[in-house]
Design goal:
single chain; 210 residues; alpha/beta; Metallo-beta-lactamase, Chain A; 6-stranded mixed beta sheet; 5 helices; 28% strand
């Protein structure tokens, strides 16, 4: 499995990840923050076959490119069932509070805990990690964790949005992410990558022993 990070919405610093299987060339796009021709060019240049768009949650800065990329590739949008309404509602996805009305195409597949998303012979596993939103997910492959806005380097996702909750987020981090191997690389929705072991020891918001 290989991946490339794009920052296509600098104002929010959202990390958009293109992830693919080296053998089959099947690929998914995780959290397309905005339309971006550079991603289309990269996919074409590297002969990747897009199979899905995945949203780790339904906030505007993670779904803003859904329509653009789906129109280009005609692939389904995948999101946890608890966040699916955010795709269609600018108030729920918070875009209406930012002076923009973002409406994504509807989900083509609703995800749940334990679901697998196949890329060639490899699979991304869905971990349901609510707290930032009710339907926040992380995606795990081997020692790579695409963490959305659940866990950041030295920080955590905000919990002051309508369906956010700190205790729920803490439970998700301790019982889902901190149970992974310490060498697991955390690829967050914002900021730099980190490792599970580092966050267990040093994250000031959620410590492993709590």
């Amino acid at each position: 499995m290989d991946f490339k990070t794009f920052e296509i919405l600098p104002a929010f610093g959202t990390n958009t990840y293109l992830v693919w299987d080296k053998d089959s060339r099947e690929a998914v796009l995780i959290d397309p923050a905005a339309p971006a021709e550079e991603i289309i060019s990269y996919v074409n240049t590297n002969s990747l076959e897009m199979v899905a768009i995945i949203n780790t949650h339904g906030h505007a800065d993670h779904i803003g490119g859904n329509g653009f990329f789906q129109q280009k590739w005609n692939v389904p949008i995948l999101i946890h069932e608890a966040d699916s309404e955010k795709l269609l509602n600018p108030r729920l996805n918070l875009s209406s509070y930012m002076g923009e009305e973002i409406v994504s195409p509807a989900a083509g597949r609703l995800l749940q805990e334990g679901d697998r998303i196949r890329l060639g012979k490899k699979k991304l596993e869905v971990l349901h990690t609510p707290g930032h939103t009710a339907g926040s997910i992380c995606l795990l492959y081997d020692i790579l964790l695409f963490a959305g806005d659940t866990l950041f380097k030295g920080s955590i996702g905000r919990t002051d949005f309508p369906d956010g909750d700190f205790e729920t987020l803490k439970h998700s981090i301790i019982n889902k992410i901190y149970k992974l191997a310490d060498q697991t690389i955390v690829l967050p929705g914002h900021m730099d990558k980190t490792k599970v072991g580092i966050e267990k020891r040093e994250n000031p918001f959620v410590r492993a022993q709590e």
